[in-house]
Amino acid sequence: MLRCTSEDPLSRVQYADFKTYLPGDILTKVDRASMANSLEVRVPLLDHGFVEWVARLPSRLKLHGPEGKHIFKAALEPHVSKAILYRPKQGFAVPLAAWFRGPLRRHVRERLCGPVLSASGLFDMATIGTLLDQHQSAVRDHSAALWSLSMFESFLRQVHGCGVGADADPETIGSVA
Questions:
Q1: Model pTM score
Q2: Are 85 and 76 in contact (CB under 8 A)?
């Protein structure tokens, strides 16, 4: 932020986004997903000349009330329907809730109720079972907690070199926790 010469708060936030959020999150995801599918992706709105020009615009042209990209959307109105231009943002969310209720239903249950988390002694296994039951019956969305538990279980298996089921050594797992 020290290199941002603007005193305008919006410009400072946008500068921070360009230096952190875009390269460290959004562009990384696009790059990985496109390479995994043998696609070449271009981001024309990040052309350096265009970005430099937009950075010099006053905030009143960038933000109009709660609506961002004001001047950009106004310029596109003759070409793109307002329903598309002004719809809510759609992120890059992974449909974990649906996956944990569908194709990964059995897998996540086997991992979270299996010997690795149980042997760690860190968790109340009845509570994990309740989280799974509530999530998989669509009573509550516990996908974030289930994802975290799943990643921790995977970490324990990797660190301790144990597998699931017969390969798991509860003595080894519990001794490090």
A1: 0.53
A2: yes
